[in-house]
Specification:
alpha+beta; Kinesin-like protein; microtubule motor activity; motor protein; ten-stranded mixed beta sheet; 2 domains; 18 strands; binds adenosine-5'-triphosphate; microtubule binding; coiled coil
């Protein structure tokens, strides 16, 4: 997984966004109206439009991505082959993001719920097997609803401000960050977030999520035993699980009033995401309008920056959704051209440095003591050794 576009550049590795497409089965509603399934995954990486429609002859019939998943594929398979490598790279100090993109009711939440669970489970498995390292996991969650950022770990729905940090990039002010005790604690927090998330009813999906959701896990790890200068460092990285709101045009999923307002904002964020992806697909030259929406500001580093990124585009196979499916595939085609430059994020932890110096001091003290004769026959030598120890202590 992870098509390499070049070698190390500026300490990082140039790598394309890993793009996969997942087709869900026809749902009850589609079956009831005898909708036709138009798409077929002919192998592991190509999806074709299998029924010829004369009025559609100008559209491509075959699309190739890093991976395509038919309606028979399980979420476990989508995870293993389409997201795992990107997700667990956070353990090696590499920032990563996994997105689900697609029209409403195409399976974004269904897919992301599984992907999040499997990634976190693999992260905890890894931690279990690497007792020689100490891990600190911090969880935060936010949603972007009507272009306002809200903390999903807080019952307070006041919008949060975005700030620009010269080192960290865009940060969300006052976003709650919970230090995780274990995997059960993570599940508890997740269920709290689900309750907080805005849900509305549209004509396409009764439980449609009208907001973009970003779940974020920050992981820091350092060696428990500091045996040399080589392992003084702490690896620090973040993984984002991004469940986007439906990508359909406002007219299709919306009725009026509130829904319409939501739709305009949803489209503004997704429109900017589309523009950013389209511009980046042609190279990093020129102005990239990250600042035009909250979504692209918050996720800037995952779009052409210091991160590994996987995008799973979900779609319905039904003919009634052909327009949306084509739009999704067009988005996916642009996304696969985007190149990121992920780096291992190493920080020198003060704690590790102090620990190392203390050990070094203890070792030198004991070395010096061994050199001192047991009798006090030479008081001058003893004084000199004591002075040496004092000098070391002062360092
Ligand atoms: N691959 C799949 N296999 C079986 N059922 C699926 C699959 N994908 C989605 N579904 C079902 O389809 C319905 C809609 O899926 P989901 O809520 O994930 O869509 P969504 O893209 O997140 O929609 P929205 O943008 O409105 O939030 C759900 O009932 C879900 O269980």
């Amino acid at each position: 997984m992870g098509s390499i576009a070049g070698d190390d550049v500026g300490g990082g590795k140039e790598e394309r966004i890993f793009v996969s497409v997942r087709v869900r089965p026809l749902n009850e509603r589609e079956l009831e109206r005898s909708d036709v399934s138009d798409w077929e995954c002919i192998n592991a990486d190509t999806i074709i439009f299998k029924n010829s429609l004369p009025e559609r002859s100008m559209f491509p019939t075959a699309y190739t991505f890093d991976r395509v998943f038919s309606c028979e594929s399980t979420t476990r398979q989508v995870y293993e082959e389409g997201a795992k490598e990107v997700g667990v790279s956070v353990l090696s100090g590499i920032n990563s993001s996994i997105f689900a993109y697609g029209q409403t009711s195409s399976g974004k939440t269904y897919t992301m719920n599984g992907i999040t669970e499997y990634t976190v489970s693999d992260i905890y498995d890894y931690i279990q097997k690497h007792q020689e390292r100490e891990f600190i996991l911090k969880f935060s969650a936010m949603e972007i609803y009507n272009e306002a950022v809200r903390d999903l770990l807080s019952p307070d729905s006041a919008p949060l401000r975005l700030l620009d940090d010269p080192e960290k990039g865009t940060i969300v002010e006052k976003l709650t960050e919970e230090t995780l005790r274990d995997q059960d604690h993570f599940r508890e927090l997740l269920s709290f977030c689900e309750d907080q998330r805005q849900i509305g009813e549209t004509s396409l999906n009764e439980m449609s999520s009208r907001s973009h959701q970003i779940l974020r896990l920050a992981i820091e790890s350092s060696a428990r035993e500091v045996s040399g200068m080589g392992n003084l460092s702490t690896l620090a990285a973040t993984v984002n699980f991004v469940d986007l709101a439906g990508s359909e045009r406002a007219s299709q999923a919306l009725t009026a009033g509130t829904r319409l307002k939501e739709g305009c904002h949803i489209n503004r964020s997704l429109l900017t995401l589309g523009t950013v992806i389209r511009k980046l697909s042609k190279g990093r030259n020129g102005h990239i309008p990250y600042r035009d929406s909250k979504l692209t500001r918050i996720l800037q580093s995952s779009l052409g920056g210091n991160a590994k990124t996987a995008i799973i585009c979900t779609m319905s196979p039904a003919r009634t959704h052909i327009e949306q499916s084509r739009n999704t595939l067009l988005f996916a085609s642009c996304a696969k051209e985007v190149v990121n430059n992920a780096q291992v994020n190493v920080v020198m932890s003060d704690k590790a440095l102090v620990k190392h110096l203390q050990r070094e001091l203890a070792r030198l003290e004991s070395e010096l003591r061994c050199m001192v004769p047991t009798s006090t026959s030479n008081p001058d030598a003893l004084k000199e050794k004591d002075a040496q120890i004092k000098r070391w202590r002062k360092r």
